[in-house]
Structures are given as C-alpha cells and as structure tokens.
Amino acid sequence: MTTKITFIGAGNMASSLAGGIIAKGYDPLHITLTDVNDSQLAQARSSLQVNTCRDNLSACQKADVIVLAVKPQVMGDVIAPLKAIVSLRKPLIISIAAGITLAKLEGWLGADAAVVRCMPNTPALVEAGATGLYANANVSPSQREQARAIMASVGLALWVENEDQIDAVTALSGSGPAYYFLVMEAMIAAGKAMGLSEQVARQLTLQTALGSAQMAITGSVEPAELRRRVTSPGGTTERAISIMEQQGLRDTFLQALKGAYDRSKELAG
Known about the structure:
Elements: E1 5-8, H1 12-23, E2 31-34, H2 38-48, E3 51-53, H3 56-60, E4 65-68, H4 75-79, H5 83-89, E5 92-95, H6 102-109, E6 114-119, E7 129-135, H7 141-152, E8 155-159, H8 165-174, H9 176-193, H10 198-218, H11 223-230, H12 236-246, H13 249-268
Parallel strand pairs: 1-2, 1-4, 2-3, 4-5, 5-6, 7-8
Antiparallel strand pairs: 6-7
C-alpha cells in the first residue's frame, strides 16, 4: 500500500515539498493539496499533477501523513476540526509552521497524535533547504523515517535532541538565508563603491558565495581551515579579515542569532 500524503496549505513550501518527493519517484496521485486559494490549487494541479481539494476534512479522510503548511496565526482554527479524524486514523502529523509548539498541536489534535515539528528554510524552494526536526513520543520509527524522507526531498534534514533546539534551528538556518543575503548585499555595494558595475559586482559576489559553500560542503576541511588557506600572511585577505575581526563580526553574529533565538521563544509562548 502506498502512503497517502495530504498537505494542508498549497503555498510555496508545501508545493516545493510535494515537488521534491515527486522528483524522488513518489506517485503524485497519492498526494493531495488543500487550500482556500483556487489559483494556488490550479497551479499545483498543473505543475505537479497532484490531487487538490478545498475541504480539509475530505482530504484527510484516508491520509497516512498530514503536512501542516498554513500560517501560524490560523493553525488552530484550521486543524482543530481534524481532531476526530486524527484520533481515528492516527496519521503522522508534520508541522512546518514556525512557533507552533508540540503542546499546542497536541492540544488541538489530541494528546495521542503522532506529531513531528519541523523548521525548514526558504532554499527548500530550490531543493537546497536545511531542516531541523523533532518528534513527540507518539511517533514510531517508521514515521520518523517518513518525516525525514519528506523533508530531505528538498535538502538536508536533521533530527535535534529536544524541542527547545528547534528555536536554535530557527535562529541558525531558518532565518539564516537572510544573513547571507545581507552579506551579499554588502559585498555588492562595496564592489560598486570600488568602481565595479552593478552586474559585475553582483555576479562575482554570488558566484563567490556559491563556490565557497560548495568547497565547505564537498570537502573534508573545516571552514576555519579553509579561511586560513585563503588568508596569506601580509596579503589582501588578511587585511580584510583583520578589519572584520576588529569590528567585532563574530560577536555581531552571536548577538544576532541569540536575538533570533529569543524571539522564536517569544513567538512560541
């Protein structure tokens, strides 16, 4: 029997996850996306060849996995009506909504619901995402693998040791793309200030970011050692790195991520 997956919400992230598992060989006929937005459903049908529906209850009647991909502020209203179905069928519930704790999800769906809480990031839209996952005690080993496989279809998927660490994942990788985009902005602006055209500064910056990430991912050398290898004594890179260190770049990142971590906890509270 093929697992039936229902996505509640048909936005960018849900469509990307559905597309990711389809690209890995999953039959789109066993996937259903629901939404109140008819244009998003039409887009999903056209691009993914999946089933679509406006009625969440109907879409979840035979679901083995339910992926919650709606905005956090409407989550309770959307999923509370599913409690009876979840209690009867006991599907795996995967939530990708930021700030919605397991306790809240269990309150809406029942204490015996098998729930995995995930924090993906936007590069999942181009199958280069990074996701942290945490499961409650009701999730079986096979369901854990189902959850990991779904999130891994669009990038890296790693389990964390406790739910509090999801807030750290939010600060590090959930918000992380924005940090790199800011660095890119700053480097492009600096290149222009030194006389390069917008196009040249942009292309050089983005390719440098891509190449650096690929070196760090594909090699066996730590980022600190890669940095040292580029930093020749008395050279241009050493001068630049020295200025960054003097300006407190490391502490800025530490304080920024702590701020994001604290805000994640506030939102979850």
